[in-house]
């Protein structure tokens, strides 16, 4: 029997060939994950629901399929976690009103994963309805950061990020409206891949803001994230925003030389607000890209204040439109922070909403033009502030204020694909990361650039010591 911890931390790309060659059984893998969940989830609170019996049954079935020669691909027999806003079994959305809700069907992207042989370990924790910041007083307790249990694991895909970083899943699914795949990935020191708007179906995923919502994977390596994306992407008529485009092999460019490729820095967005503890590892990453052959260029962009003026009116207004009736009828059961978001959204005027929508299109066109003429990818920090501590009380609107600098929304409201990659640690030993973004539906190039940095540095091999 292999060491449970070593097995749980193997990248999917290394584990899958062993599964295919029948050197490791899906049953052995499932037991390793369940052992770590049993040991660590009471402290981390990364899962709301664990499907232990179902996982064991699915693992035995996968083992038998592979023994018969019916190997489905690199995710066959691999346990993952699913953010608890995806319809699959018990689906709470991290909210008391839905504590006992059991979905009658499965989200489209989860169906695709299962068809590719993925095993579902459980439903992972989320901020309430993917926006209500949890505190120690919340009904569903906040997920702990595996690098330091006093700190947040990022939101709103908090449980997915924490479980993947801590070896309680090999990868997982999250959702992203303003940064909820990439920010928790940074907080937990892993990879978060937000695909192009429309690349992965949102059917069966509880909406937050329909014009901004994306779904996508979190994983410990770029390769694993690319494998997950290929397995869950594809056109789905059940999602009105789904794009009817081919699904390529997102690993096809991994390992290709990046010498001469141009990286455009969006300094205007982060230069004045990125704190030193985050800035130093980020600037070291820029220099590392130069060392391995990339060219660094400057790309004019909006400022942090302008980004917030574009993103937040749409997010707040659309959230309010979805939740206002529920808050009126069962508002006493909502997290105070979630109720505040809904109330704030009701104050967004139609003129403000439409003006932000118009500017969104302008910024998108400018970034695509830069990607077609000036650079091959864009780069900037994931956030400019350190990982926050878990608060005792609602943070109010502070997490959308300029002193909480997060640079992820620009790729939500433009819909461009973006990946978060770890690039070191701050002085408190908490992870720091950066984003690479690219042209619409060119996730392969985004992954190529991220992989080149990942392989040139040691950060993807670091794991929290729990």
Could you characterize the architecture of this molecule?
56% of the residues are buried. This protein has one domain: Amidase signature (AS) domain (Amidase signature (AS) enzymes), CATH 3.90.1300. It is of the alpha/beta class. 39% of the residues lie in helices and 14% in strands. It is globular, with a radius of gyration of 20 Å. It has 15 helices and 13 strands. The strands form two sheets. An eleven-stranded mixed beta sheet has the order 1-3-2-6-8-7-12-13-11-9-10, with helices on both faces. A two-stranded antiparallel sheet has the order 4-5.
What attributes characterize this protein structure?
15 helices; single chain; two-stranded antiparallel ribbon; 466 residues; globular; 14% strand; Amidase signature (AS) enzymes; alpha/beta
Order of helices and strands: HHHEHEHEEEHEHEEHEHHEHHHEHEEH
Alpha-beta content class: alpha/beta
Please indicate the count of domains: 1
Our Rg estimate from Cα atoms comes to: 20 Å
List unreliable stretches of 5+ residues.
none
**Sheet of most strands:** 11 strands, mixed
Could you give the count of β-strands? Answer: 13
Beta-strand content estimate: 5-15%
Mean pLDDT across every amino acid position:
97
* Helical segment count: 15
Fraction of residues in helices?
Answer: 25-40%
How does the overall form come out from the CA principal axes?
Answer: globular
Which CATH top level class fits?
Alpha Beta
Lateral arrangement of strands in the main beta sheet: 1-3-2-6-8-7-12-13-11-9-10
Fold-level CATH name? Amidase signature (AS) enzymes
């Amino acid at each position: 029997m292999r060491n449970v911890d070593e097995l749980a931390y193997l990248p999917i790309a290394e584990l899958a060939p062993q599964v295919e060659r029948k050197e490791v059984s899906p049953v052995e893998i499932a037991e390793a994950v369940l052992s770590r969940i049993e040991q660590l989830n009471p402290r981390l609170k990364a899962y709301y629901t664990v499907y232990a019996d179902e996982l064991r049954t699915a693992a035995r079935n996968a083992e038998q399929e592979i023994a018969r020669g019916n190997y489905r691909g690199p995710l066959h027999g691999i346990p993952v976690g699913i953010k608890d806003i995806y319809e699959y079994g018990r689906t709470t959305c991290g909210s008391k009103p839905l504590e006992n809700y059991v979905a009658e069907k499965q989200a489209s992207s989860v169906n695709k994963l299962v068809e590719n042989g993925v095993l579902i370990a459980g439903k992972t924790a989320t901020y309430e309805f993917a926006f209500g910041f949890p505190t120690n007083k919340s009904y569903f307790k906040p997920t702990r950061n595996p690098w330091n249990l006093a700190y947040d694991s990022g939101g709103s895909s908090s449980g997915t990020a924490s479980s993947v970083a801590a070896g309680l899943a090999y990868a997982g699914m999250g959702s992203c409206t303003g940064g909820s795949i990439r920010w928790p990935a940074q907080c937990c020191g892993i990879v978060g891949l937000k695909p192009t708007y429309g690349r992965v179906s949102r059917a069966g995923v509880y909406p937050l803001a329909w014009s901004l919502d994306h779904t996508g994977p979190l994983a410990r390596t770029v390769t694993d994230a690319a494998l997950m994306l290929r397995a869950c992407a594809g056109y789905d008529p059940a999602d009105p925003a789904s794009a009817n485009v081919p699904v390529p092999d997102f690993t096809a460019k991994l390992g290709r030389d990046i010498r001469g490729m141009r990286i455009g820095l969006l300094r205007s967005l982060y230069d004045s607000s990125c704190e030193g503890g985050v800035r130093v590892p980020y600037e070291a990453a820029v220099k590392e890209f130069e060392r391995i052959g990339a060219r660094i260029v400057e790309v004019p962009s909006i400022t942090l204040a302008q980004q917030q003026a574009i993103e937040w009116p749409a997010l707040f207004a659309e959230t309010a439109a979805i939740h206002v009736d529920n808050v009126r009828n069962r508002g006493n059961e909502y997290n105070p922070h979630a109720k505040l978001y809904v109330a704030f959204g009701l104050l967004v005027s139609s003129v403000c909403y439409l003006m932000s929508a118009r500017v969104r299109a302008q910024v998108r066109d400018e970034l695509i033009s830069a990607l077609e003429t000036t650079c091959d990818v864009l780069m900037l920090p994931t956030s400019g502030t350190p990982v926050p501590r878990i608060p005792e009380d609602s943070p109010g609107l502070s997490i959308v204020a300029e002193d909480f600098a997060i640079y992820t929304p620009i790729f939500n409201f433009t819909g461009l694909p973006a990946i978060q990659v770890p690039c070191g640690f701050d002085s408190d030993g908490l992870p720091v990361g950066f984003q690479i973004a690219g042209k619409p539906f060119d996730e392969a190039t985004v992954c190529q650039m991220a992989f080149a940095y990942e392989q040139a540095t040691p950060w993807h091999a670091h794991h929290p010591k729990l």
